[in-house]
Amino acid sequence: MARDKAPSLLLLPSPPDPASRASLSAAYKPALTAALSHLKDASAAQTLIVAVACPILKGSGLRHKTLSWPHTQHLLAGLYAIISVVCANLDIPSYVDAGAHSVDTRVVLIDHERSRQYGQDFRAAIESNNTAIVDLATFASVYHPWKYIFNTDSEIAHEVQSLYLKMAEKHQKLLQDQLITVKGGIALNVPSTQSTTSSPPTSLHKNVCLGGTFDHLHAGHKLLLTAGAYLLDIPESGSANTCVYVIGITGDELLKNKKNADVLQPWIDRARTVARFLSSILELASQGWAGASAPTLQEGDGQLTTTLRGGAITIQCVRIHDAFGPTITQEDLDCLVVSAETRSGGDAVNHERSKLGWNSLEIFEVDVLDAKEISDVSTTTQDFSSKISSTSIRQQIAQATHQK
């Protein structure tokens, strides 16, 4: 992969504790603003991976890891909210395949404990655990090459970057102009018995389901898909088992009356984008994205399937024709992920499943992206809300098309 076409990395240290929207903004907004400002003027679409290295996983042994999903999704939501605000302020499209002067920004969490010791003979290698979250060594082995690596100007951030570069050096030779230090924010840690990092572990699931339109995949979609992926209980690669991530995607016929439906993406394009997005955050390939082959997509009538990690993960995109989709056609589902805006849908699903004599799904709720919760963006709330939805994105595309 040519350097100009490679994604860039913003490597961030542990979040403040407690991780409120305001404290996350104070800690991360300066760095996000600097990195996005650096990339936005490129003539070709750019990709930025925002990676936060912090203690996420608990448990002994490689295959017995646990996490607190409420804390994890809250951190993801806070980051995507700040990214959306910054992109609104800088007039940067951040949805997938947005074209010139856009930055497709994606968030991943890396399990990293500052106190962990590595020997002098340490060699980065892929060691997958039973979750979708990998450690710093595996991240260094899988995610490469980079166009730029941005790092904040704090002691902890430089410590993380130095360790990361030691692990990554065998995979990519970096020039000095590719390493960019940006201004960091203010992060305060206030010890509290109510700390979010001390939340009880969440039971992971072999089958996870969620649904949506996923038109012009934007920050809200990325948050929902990533948070759902972090609920997967992933078996070892090469075993006979697989976990299944079922994504219900609204069919074209249900969307024909949507505003600016003429620029709405066809179902198959939306399904392909979802599968490729999930592959970018879930697949583990030692060649990185430069040498790894694109995921093989098996496409049928109203279905698209792909497998990742040697068959350990199955992504199943299903065309839905009603409000329930696969939740009332597949009995073996375990849990349903919803946004706070659609929480009533989870109750309705379980009501329908009870009528079929099926088990109820455990409902997991993802935070909404709301600029009002970030203390210093009162003047940009309108810009933020006008750019975060698929409806608004279609309106912008339609306007641009008519002006040509």
TrEMBL record:
Protein name from the UniProt record: Cytidyltransferase-like domain-containing protein
GO biological process: coenzyme A biosynthetic process
Domain of life: Eukaryota
Residue ranges occupied by any Cytidyltransferase-like domain in the UniProt entry: 210-395
Any one GO MF annotation of this record: dephospho-CoA kinase activity
Organism: Coniella lustricola
SUPFAM superfamilies: Nucleotidylyl transferase
